[in-house]
Amino acid sequence: MTALRIDVADLLAHRTTRREVALSATVEGLVATAARVGDDEPVALDLVLERISDGIVVRGTLATRWRADCSVCLDPLEQPLSLGVNELFEPEPLEGDTYPIEEHEIDLEQLVRDNVILELPLAPVCSDTGAPPCVDPADSRAEPPPPDPRWAPLSQLDLKQ
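The structure corresponding to this sequence follows.
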């Protein structure tokens, strides 16, 4: 049984029961377009599991740390991520809407994966971490960087036809 696989037989046996779960585990492959949670970075789960007539509701928070390179200046970025979850596990899950209860266990890995990946920034920039913006657009005196020499042949094209 993995750290994110939880035995819920006690909850399934009694209606309207609750249990608090606090655990930390690593989840491989938490990657969005530009940001990622390192495979060695733990995800902390602070949850309440509650039995309802349809199954088990999982509410609480997930917390971890993401890393990326700034989309503007390419400096390395690192930022904590904390998000709330409120999901339903049921014996006959609706694909894309709920998660399965398999016999008397629930697997929180897919819940972590779905929620964390959706919250990772698609194009992170320095200002996402609270740092000043890489280039202040209000500063008109800022010198633009020199053009990349690989694009020089394009400046010779005559586009006025």
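Residues 5-133 form one domain.
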